[in-house]
Design brief:
Blueprint (H helix, E strand, L loop, with lengths): L1 H23 L3 E7 L4 H13 L2 E5 L2 H8 L15 E6 L4 H12 L3 E8 L2 E3 L1 H8 L4 H24 L2 H17 L1
Antiparallel strand pairs: 1-3, 1-4, 2-3, 4-5
Amino acid sequence: MHRRRSVDRLQKQEFVASLHQTFKQTTLVVVTHQSGLTVGEVTSLRRQMRDAGAGFKVTKNRLARLALEGTQFEGLAPLFTGPTAIAFSADPVAAAKVAVTFANANDKLTIVGGAMGPQLLDPAGIKALATLPSLDELRGKLVGLLQTPATRVAAVLQAPAGQLARVLNAYASKGEAA
């Protein structure tokens, strides 16, 4: 009996240390209540989170509150009551997107709140965050914006000299008119 207690204590300490490290490396934490999710549903949610670069973990409230200590997410401690699970990501939107999408399709998962760094967010804030583009989507848009002008310049440079002269003349006239 005594041996069992020390193993449990060691497992709890390892869980707290692991979760504490997760909180230190994370930008966004979404706190959820999950009740009645099947193993298959949790597995599906974890897979969706992993595909988005996020994580999902069912927590023990007392241990999670211990893990929050000394991190930028300490303000979340009061949300850890009931059947709690967390979604987390380094990307400031990924965990929110997946959690909100899953919660909209499955009433067994409810968004309780969360935080982006030290900024606490209510469920509406998490849902608003979920509508923003992810870092990968923003990078794609930025690359597209950077490539478009280069494509236009290349097309102009490949144009016959007369057309190029007309384009330059049009820009010069436009500059004088301004």
